[in-house]
Amino acid sequence: MIELAGLTKRYGEKVAVNNLTFAVRPGMVTGFLGPNGAGKSTTMRMILGLDRPTAGDVRVDGRPYDRLKDPLKSIGALLEARAVHGGRSAYHHLLCLAQSNGIPKRRVHEVLDTVGLTAVARKKARSFSLGMSQRLGIAAALLGDPRILMFDEPVNGLDPEGIHWIRTLMKSLAAQGRTVFVSSHLMSEMALTADHLVVIGQGRLLADTSMAGFIEQNSRSCVRIRTPQPERLLDVLHAAGITAVATGTGAFEVDGGKPEHIGELAARHQVVLHELSPRQASLEEAFMRLTAESVEYHAHTGTPPAAQRWGDGGGRS
Ligand SMILES: Nc1ncnc2c1ncn2[C@@H]1O[C@H](COP(=O)(O)OP(=O)(O)OP(=O)(O)O)[C@@H](O)[C@H]1O
Fold it and tell me: CB of 38 closer than 6 A to ligand 1?
């Protein structure tokens, strides 16, 4: 378990992490989500004692990191995949780590096998691709057989096979009862991996929720309608107790409506429809709405907020 209480980090005027309180529990994958610059890496560095909090407290298995007896046996972390001595082979990198932490040599062979690097174990780390470096970083995290694992953006720059491998590994580590804490700025990735979500923006806690709860709250659907008889349609819908909102592009949207229900109503009242399409808000869009206020650097696309709310799956003339 990792516990944060009022954790805060300032760099001069900048508040990178602002009064974070939450717990990361065992037996599940907890996704740590936030836009770029939200404070994820700073939080993870404080968990590992690499950055000193300005205020608050963080504990790993009930203790501050620097009071852990065998840190690598309590928590393993991948923060920066390329932070390896490039002139060393994968085998020697892991062997040095094992020897300086009282970890038996056989674990080096075991973790090389787990991450699929046995065949290239004697090659210099500087010749490794990003995917191989990520695997080596994960092997180092697993070396002490820790109950807690922490990965900072582990799928960045990986090909689909590498992404699938990391996803499967994280789930299997959680299924073994371990605590798995993984950061990402992609909701779509977390939706496939995490059981629990902690969302931050500008250093503040925005959500601490189960993935299932987040999906249930944010997977609302709507129906998009276009008609050459808008006034008639609105009257028919209004009489049926249905609220339609104009999108500003000549179409209407009914939040949570069913297309068959609206289509039948329109047919019964002889209203001509040119479009009747169900739409689903994606989790990525729900995440963007949640963090919209806290994104530091917006890209100005010129797209109006109403059009960004729902997936634009075509149908626009
Ligand atoms: N050593 C530092 N000195 C000054 N400011 C810093 C330092 N480290 C981080 N920051 C600032 O703190 C904020 C949080 O940064 P952090 O790297 O923790 O965010 P992040 O969520 O990990 O972002 P990303 O997804 O881009 O990696 C940013 O505004 C960053 O510029």
Answer: yes
